Amino acid sequence: MKRAFNNSVKIADDFDLEKIRISGQCFRIKLQPDGVYRFIKGSDVLDMRASVPGVYDISCSDEEFADIWHDYFDLDRSYEAVREAIDAADSYMTAAAESGKGIRILKQEPWECLISFIISQRKNIPAIMAAVDSVCRAAGKEIGSTGEYEFPDAARMLEFSDEQWKGFKLGYREAYIRRTVMDAPDMYSMAGLTDEELLERLTAMYGVGIKVASCTALFAYSRVDLAPVDVWIKRVFDEQYGGEDVLSGRKNAGILQQYLFYHARTTK
């Protein structure tokens, strides 16, 4: 269902709706046929479209944008400054940052982010999106008249029958998610942990390896100094840096990882 655009917001820093959508960090951003981008966070839905350079039409009030979406889009951080801090001698990283200019790290709901990245293992993005959407529609609460659904909490997911679980087509990931649902970790209590403690707590969960843990830490807890390393990033290390992990221990490594990931996937 279309929503009215009664407001607009100015964003002076790097911000590109399409690059954010295809950056691989969130599986419920929807591009509508009319060019409107839809974001879902908990029980809130935002429709957004580019207006004039640096101005975006939004389907919410100033107060709602400030309370919910400002942090979601990490708007207190200067991504321009992150790009400008890259050593010019690193030609590949510089090119990747220019290519990925406009990507921002979204601050997603921790439970949804964790389950989504467990689902994502060895699945392509359309399949991940379909699986996440089917889980939401199976047990999530409808969000007003938007036609969208909240991501269900562990208690609601515990009510899924064996037949419903099979219908999600999760493969071997089903066992991991069902165990995680049974253990029902308190995701919000982890917000105060250090990066190391957070990764330790996440990887202690059944079926959660360092890649899923790093994705959850970065995309749900805004731990921008942590960089998930997948096959794309590993390939960049091998082909561009002689196998060296050039992100480990680096400030804003998670943001740089997004630039490298986007650049590797969208350029030859």
Could you give a short description of this structure?
With 268 residues, the protein is α+β, with helices and mostly antiparallel strands. The protein has two domains: 88 residues, TATA-Binding Protein, CATH 3.30.310.260; 112 residues, Endonuclease III, domain 1, CATH 1.10.340. The protein starts with 6 loop residues before the first strand and ends with a helix.
Report the span from N to C terminus.
38 Å
- Biggest β-sheet: strands ordered side by side in the sheet: 1-5-4-3-2
Q: If you average the pLDDT, what whole number results?
A: 95
CATH topology of the largest domain: Endonuclease III, domain 1
CATH class of the largest domain: Mainly Alpha
What is the CATH superfamily classification of the largest domain? Hypothetical protein, domain 2
Taken in chain order, the helices and strands follow as EHEEEEHHHHHHHHHHHH
Strand content: 5-15%
Q: How are the SSEs ordered, and which strands pair?
A:
Blueprint: E1 7-10, H1 17-21, E2 30-31, E3 37-41, E4 44-50, E5 55-58, H2 62-72, H3 79-84, H4 91-99, H5 110-120, H6 125-139, H7 154-157, H8 162-167, H9 173-183, H10 195-203, H11 210-221, H12 231-240, H13 253-266
Antiparallel strand pairs: 1-5, 2-3, 3-4, 4-5
